[in-house]
Every structure is written in structure tokens, then in C-alpha cells.
């Protein structure tokens, strides 16, 4: 299977915002877009995106998962970047239409169709460093993906970073390109110097998230994760896992967690840690690296509660368990 996110469906659906209004959706080639070299997005990073998935059930029907949550976050990101306001119903129609067009290409579980709505400022004006783009382009790109775990669910190794931060604190909840670019130098350094898979950003000792996934600590019957604020991305997977944990009778604690408490709890038997996100679902964490010391999380292997919650989420997505929260929308 190809590397995650490198295969695209030949067509995508696109709209543009010009003269104060959105165009009708058009299905166009996903090979290229027409962009002026002075486009606002290329200079001042007026860009945001979403990531959600559509799943194939055993009867051949296709469903999106929590699409309303992703569209709401997309609308919020657009607003916080002073991009034109989006029409949520229009985006929902676009997603259902383009996924419907490629229904036959949605892979069987554990694969899925990854859906990437993208919104960019396209006004050709390099003088607008301190002004919004008045025109924009919004497209929905599709990428069939396989099992993120194809190489086995090897627990991740995370560097705890208390000095830097992933992005500016007021930008954390915006799913915007510049945030990822700004986190790259420390992530590449951590990969090179301590062979970390990811950095767990913990500015001033406050455990936050990694470059593209939320962090959950599991201690027996309790799940602990940072309470929502503007400094980090409000994951739909995070919310789904917490909801399923409550359904299973677990105690969910959304609160601040310090590096000190994390390391004290880490090595106790029964402790588990995991990253949550649409691409990786729920990925076990096996090791923390902190100031040249290594801490094994629990037994160091994928924890049973992590795998149980991951399975519970997949079962709903794959139509093997009842969708009691109304998270699925039928495409076809
Ligand atoms: C997308 C993303 C997540 C996970 O969000 P989901 O909605 O669960 O996919 C977490 N952190 C960052 C920085 C992200 O970009």
C-alpha cells in the first residue's frame, strides 16, 4: 500500500468566493489548481483544512463519520483566519456528492476514504500582509487510505518538550498550515537526536498534544486529558473516545496534567498512554523521553484499554456496533 495521503481520486469538488458570494460547486480535476503567484495564501498563510473519513460497511453501503463536527471546525478555522465565511450546508453537500461519485473506490476496513476539505485565500495582493483575502477557493480532495497500522501497532516513543510550543497559543485550535510548518524544526531535531517518533508539546510543564494528534493518559478506569482551550486542536477523535469511555463506565477527567504528574504515573502497572486523531485513530505510546531519561509507559506494550477503545470506535465506523450517538451519515 502506498504511503498515507499520496494517492488521490482523479477529481475533486471545488467552489470559489468572489464578489461577496460563493459559486456553485464544480467537479474538476485534482491534478492542479490555477493560482496567482501573488495569492494571499502563498505569502500570508490564509489556509485551513479538515480531515475526516468515509467507511465501507459489509453490505457495501458507505458512511461518513461525524462530518458535522469537522464542518463546524472548518467554519471556525475559516473565521479565525479571516477567510470568507463558509456555508456549512454547501460543504456537506459537496462532501456527500464527491464521496458518492467515488463510492466504489472506498476501501474495505481497515482502510477508508480520507476526505480533505481545504480553504485558501486566493486574492492576488502581496500588499495585504495585514488585511484579509477577499476571494478564496475551497475544495474537497479524496485519498483512499489503508491501515495506518500496516506495520503492526508498535507503541510510539515521545519526547516531552517543556521549552518550546507547537504554535502560537491562540492558534492551536485552528487547523491551519503554518502551525505544522512551525513545529517541524523541533520535531525533526527530536527524531534525529533521541529517535523520537513525535514531540509531546508541554509548554511550561503543561501536557498539551503532539504535532497532529491529541494525547490521552489512561490510568485504570480513568482517562485524563487536557481540558479544551484555544492552545490546542479540539480533536473529533478525542471527543469520540471520551464519549465511548463514558459509555463503558470509565471516569473521564478533562483537566490540566503536568509533566511531573505524567512521569510519576507513567511507570505504574496499568498505566497506558495514547494519541488520538482521524488518521491513526488511537495509537499506543510506549516510551517518554524527558531530559535524557527514558520512562516506559506501563509495560511498554500496547495497553488493553487503548486497544478496547480503539476497537469500540472502529466497530461503530465499520457498522459492526450500533451507532447510538448518530455519528454516521449515509452517502450511498
Ligand atoms: C487534526 C489534528 C488532531 C486530531 O483531530 P481529529 O479531529 O481527531 O482528527 C489533533 N491535533 C492536531 C494538531 C491536529 O491537526
Automatic annotation (TrEMBL):
Coiled coil regions, renumbered to chain: none
N6-(pyridoxal phosphate)lysine carried by residues: 175
Enzyme class: transferase
Cofactor(s), names only, from the UniProt record: pyridoxal 5'-phosphate
Xref: Gene3D superfamilies: 3.30.470.10, D-amino Acid Aminotransferase, subunit A, domain 2
EC number: 2.6.1.42
Pathway the protein contributes to: Amino-acid biosynthesis; L-valine biosynthesis; L-valine from pyruvate: step 4/4; Amino-acid biosynthesis; L-isoleucine biosynthesis; L-isoleucine from 2-oxobutanoate: step 4/4; Amino-acid biosynthesis; L-leucine biosynthesis; L-leucine from 3-methyl-2-oxobutanoate: step 4/4
InterPro entries: Aminotrans_IV, Aminotransferase-like, B_amino_transII, BCAT-like_C, BCAT-like_N, BCAT_family
One annotated GO molecular function: L-valine-2-oxoglutarate transaminase activity
SUPFAM superfamilies: D-aminoacid aminotransferase-like PLP-dependent enzymes
BP terms from Gene Ontology: isoleucine biosynthetic process; L-leucine biosynthetic process; L-valine biosynthetic process
Keywords: Amino-acid biosynthesis, Aminotransferase, Branched-chain amino acid biosynthesis, Pyridoxal phosphate, Transferase
Function field: Acts on leucine, isoleucine and valine.
Family: Belongs to the class-IV pyridoxal-phosphate-dependent aminotransferase family.
Protein name per Swiss-Prot or TrEMBL: Branched-chain-amino-acid aminotransferase
Organism: Glaciecola punicea ACAM 611
